[in-house]
Amino acid sequence: MKRIRNLSPVNWTVIAVVAVLLILAVLNAIRIGGGHKPQAQTVSAALPGEEYPLAVYFVSVGEGDGAVIKCGDTVLVVDGGEREQAETMKSFLSSLGVDTVDCYIATHPHSDHIGAAAGIFAAVRVKSAMLTPFSEINTPTTETYERLLDAIEAQGSEVILPAAGDVYTFGELKLTVVAPVEETGDYNNMSIVFKLEYGKTSFLFTGDMEKESEALVLEKGFDISADVLKVAHHGSTSSTTPAFLEAVSPRLAVISCGKNNDYGHPHKEILSLLEDEGIEYRRTDLSGTVTVYSDGKDVFVKEQYQ
Ligand SMILES: [Zn+2]
Predict the structure, then answer these.
(1) What is the whole-number distance in angstroms between the Cα of residue 233 and the centre of ligand 1?
(2) Which residues are near ligand 1, the ion (C-beta closer than 5 Å)?
(3) Residue-wise pLDDT tens digits, 151-162
(4) Distance (Å) from CA 209 to ligand 1 centroid
(5) Which end of the chain has fewer CB atoms surrounding its CB within 10 Å, N or C?
């Protein structure tokens, strides 16, 4: 009896210590669980030789943006990079056998986006051109912009001046414009931002939109969720706020930027943000042209340098 009584306080101490450890373990698990974000679903590599109905090419045009969207006979071109990248875009379109573009989308008037436009218009038939709607006071007077307007006029392309919320159909592609919501003299924040949908898959093209335009799009409550995000403004910290990224919740992010560019794009803060969210990304400066295919149900990625 004496031995038992002596052992008894020891047992209670052990039990108390174990209980405290268990509580701490549970609390720790809750803390870790609460802070842990689910990893985004990974994107499969495109299968060699496989034919996909939609191809979105983020063409490597140095420091700038240039994308070609091809779905059957439907072709859209977004920007194209600086003037000297016209040859890159022309030979890319030629390699795809494209001689007609349904719509050329000029996201905004900066030369790293529309510099190559006149060269593209000189090489292919462009049925329509989508431009930021500027009031007279904000209409650009740069030579780059004038050359684009001259090219549109020379072709007699239909001019589309979209408003946020407008929806367009090109073949099997649905295009919903979500920005600019309000006019400003800041061209980056006047970028045409649109969601491209094919079947159940979607892509968000953001031009060089910055925080201000992102906030307006979020305020409007547009559905900007997308499988693939073209990261705004070449991965600059001027853009891609956590709230905007969360609303898009992409599975794949693509950053279009030049090798060793003068701006330090993409900024490390944006790369960290993508990594923290578990979002896969590709960079045209490292991967060359990045192609994302869709079969209407899923997206598949292919890099030029593999
Ligand atoms: Zn730019």
Answers:
(1) 5
(2) 112, 208
(3) 999 999 999 999
(4) 9
(5) N
- CATH number for the domain that contains residue 54: 3.60.15.10
The answer to whether the beta carbons of residues 259 and 252 sit under 8 Å apart is: no
Position 243 in a domain: yes
Residue 30 pLDDT > 50: no
Q: What is the distance in A from the centroid of ligand 1 to the CA of 97?
A: 27
- Residue 35 in any domain: the answer is no
The Å distance, Cα 93 to ligand 1 centre, comes to: 21
The Å distance, Cα 64 to ligand 1 centre, comes to: 5
Give pTM, 2 decimals: 0.87
Residue 236 CA to ligand 1 center (angstroms) comes to 10
Report CA(101)–ligand 1 centroid distance (Å): 22
Give the sheet arrangement for strand 228-230, strand by strand.
Answer: 167-170, 173-179, 193-198, 201-205, 228-230, 252-255, 280-283
For residue 74, being part of any structural domain is answered with yes
Give the whole-angstrom CA distance, residue 61 versus residue 56: 15
How far, in Å, is the centroid of ligand 1 from the Cα of 301? 23
pLDDT at 49: 86
**How many domains is the chain partitioned into structurally?**
1
Distance 208 CA to ligand 1 centre (A): 5
**The token pair that represents 117 in the structure block:** 């436009």
Residue 167 belongs to domain spanning: 44-303
**What are the tens digits of pLDDT across the range 105-144?**
999 999 999 999 999 999 999 999 999 999 999 999 999 9
Alpha helices in the chain (DSSP H): 2-35, 86-95, 111-114, 117-123, 143-155, 211-220, 242-248, 268-276, 284-287
What average pLDDT does this structure show over 176-180?
A: 98
CA–centroid distance, 218 to ligand 1, in Å, is 22
pLDDT in tens, 208-253: 999 999 999 999 999 999 999 999 999 999 999 999 999 999 999 9
Query: Residue 218: inside a domain, yes or no?
Result: yes
Distance CA 111, CA 125 (A): 21
